[in-house]
Design goal:
Elements (H helix, E strand, L loop, with lengths): L8 E3 L2 E3 L2 H19 L19 H15 L7 H4 L3 H10 L1
Antiparallel strand pairs: 1-2
């Protein structure tokens, strides 16, 4: 588990994570997708549409669950459908 609270930046009642934490979120998403699809992490491009991974709903729920544990907050499975790629998803999660 990564300790993200130490490097949070607070602006107008919102918390933004630094680019390092965004990168850690991207890595976590990559690791979970790689495990779900039984592929190597280097085969995953963070700018490729998430839909190209053809995750079924159960896999999306697992992804959300793993991200919830990692970020220590509730993550909706529908977010995987709301953001076009891993980079955009991680950026959103860093601003929530």
């Amino acid at each position: 588990m990564v300790e993200i609270k130490a490097s949070q930046v607070v602006r107008a009642d919102k918390v933004y994570l630094t680019s390092q934490e965004v990168g850690l979120i991207e890595i976590k998403v990559i690791e979970v997708i790689a495990e779900l699809l039984d592929i190597e992490t280097h085969q995953i491009d963070i700018y490729v549409p998430l839909s190209s991974f053809r995750l079924d709903f159960i896999e999306v729920v697992i992804l959300a669950s793993e991200l919830s544990k990692f970020l220590e907050r509730n993550i909706s499975p529908t977010l995987a459908y709301d953001y076009p790629n891993i980079a955009a998803l991680a950026q959103y999660l860093s601003q929530e």
